[in-house]
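DM from R.C. (forwarded with permission)

"hey, sorry to bug you on a friday — could you get me a structure for this? deadline for the figure draft is monday and I only need the backbone to look sensible"
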Amino acid sequence: MAATASAGVPATVSEKQEFYQLLKNLINPSCMVRRQAEEIYENIPGLCKTTFLLDAVRNRRAGYEDPHPRVRAAACTTLGQMATDFAPNFQKKFHETVIAALLRTMENQGNQRVQSHAASALIIFIEDCPKSLLVLYLDSMVKSLHSILVIKLQELIRNGTKLALEQLVTTIASVADTIEEKFVPYYDIFMPSLKHIVELAVQKELKLLRGKTIECISHVGLAVGKEKFMQDASNVMQLLLKTQSDLNNMEDDDPQTSYMVSAWARMCKILGKDFQQYLPLVIEPLIKTASAKPDVALLDTQDVENMSDDDGWQFVNLGDQQSFGIKTSGLEAKATACQMLVYYAKELKEGFVEYTEQVVKLMVPLLKFYFHDSVRVAAAESMPFLLECAKINGPEYLTQMWQFICDPLIKAIGTEPDTDVLSEIMNSFAKSIEVMGDGCLNDEHLEELGGILKAKLEGHFKNQELRQVKRQEENYDQQVEMSLQDEDECDVYILTKVSDILHSLFSTYKEKILPWFEQLLPLIVNLICSSRPWPDRQWGLCIFDDIIEHCSPTSFKYVEYFRWPMLLNMRDNNPEVRQAAAYGLGVMAQFGGDDYRSLCSEAVPLLVKVIKCANSKTKKNVIATENCISAIGKILKFKPNCVNVDEVLPHWLSWLPLHEDKEEAIQTLSFLCDLIESNHPVVIGPNNSNLPKIISIIAEGKINETINYEDPCAKRLANVVRQVQTSEELWLECISQLDDEQQEALQELLNFA
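My reply, with the result:
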């Protein structure tokens, strides 16, 4: 096709006409024509596509008739698709031209459908557009959107036209959601119009518009924050309450319902504890929807054939004569309601206590609601949050609730057929153990859990063997390999959840859980064999890391299982494996007893080698490298008698600050404070020569948000800065080596710590 010419060569009139015909064909009702057009379109280079699309969207004249509205609509849709397929590079490369073209198309009053498609494309473009780029066009874009909103609102009042307005309010919501606090200056020009739409859109045909506008208001409120939103909060809440009251008397499939449910959740996030007064009005309809029984039927095959596809039923054949059917339209509403109950329990805590018992009795049976995956996910996710709420009513109430939850939750781990849902159930169980603490599982629970985890690990190895067999079969090809890789990713994800459960057990039970764990020990040892795939070795090491950290010094009894894998994996090509090994070596020093001294001595040169590697600070490797630096710091601090501290310290100081791993970064800063407060001569340097470096490390820690004011380390670091300030000459020398951002960071630290 001619339109595939080089991006640097201007397209001819005939080429543009060909491209516009192609766009028409992309939305052609004929499947055959549409498929042919899609195949041609896929072979056009991205830059050429964008150039032609922008021409089509802008409706330019080039010696031929303007593109048809259907072509322009198709061009908008295709731009939106490209914004999804090639994000975020597409946004980074074409932000200026695409935003301008779509806004101009939205401003053109010639065709409502084209405007709607342009608004939809802009929403998609904005979703993956970096905030730093979007703010470049913010003022002109927001003002353009407001002028369009005013015009479309007048059209709604005069003619009842709503199509473009529905997309427009969603676009405004998307902009607010992306730019967040930078929407504050524009809040006052949008909110009156948005509230006016909600008040006007009362007819049945305007329900969707009303729902989308309510959604938009909640997104805007969340973007600007409570302080700004409070001027309208009361008025908006009254509009929501009126809509909620209307919904209670409406059909289950009212389009406003899902928007209302999500809007209430955002209002809860905005208002915090102030939302508690509205909870009684919101909670009962939610519980009613979450409790709804699905419509099911057992029908003869003939009856199924007579039912139209748009009745919202799905059927499964049970043989030649019968089919099982379920009405799916109510299931999404049920799932959304369950998710919102989770949200309120999470956000309101003590404000949710009085509903805890009612909700837990609803959620536990839903762990077996096999009609809808999202319902089971929400049911699982709710458990640790409901337990947190139950804590407020005292230990006896909490224990009773856990007894109600525990057994079904363990059984769900063993029976759940869907990998994604299973991972959520396992995650929920791990979090619940952490909420409940030591002794929360009785012997029967532990026995059942041990059998389930053993089966998961054995299944993991068996599945790997089966995949290797499939790779040797005749029909093996690239498509089969992709499928096998997907299966492998699912298996590895479940392995991570096994690790999470073990982490929770080790962190709560400590060494008391080790006798139970030994039934799994051979399988965990198998994970870290050198022949295993790297994710196995990563997660196997993580499990041993937890044993070392939480069960020391008893953990040394297993040292021969992990000693050489821990050291050898410091040289692994995969940074995730190196990170797990480095973290383990660090916690050996921090939590292990004297038995670990020789192993810590062996570890130092391996850790140094990783840190000094030429590509150690690349994006791919930096987390592993920072764990190595932190591990050396822990060895220096907790096992100083197995290393030449004065020799290693200058190197360690030169590797600071850490940027990416916040938890390890704060540990290194805490150790740095120890050294400075003890006036360690190697760290301070002759004639205080290292202090400028130390002050820059502290400044960078503040810039990188490593320093948390609630952490005691923040005050210690601020005191270091204040101590240096007592010598004017020394202070001037230090700040002369800092840029403006670093100096501002230090001042902020001094103001708040």
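R.C.: lifesaver. The beta strands are 296-300, 313-317, 322-327.
me: no worries. The two ends are 66 Å apart (CA to CA).
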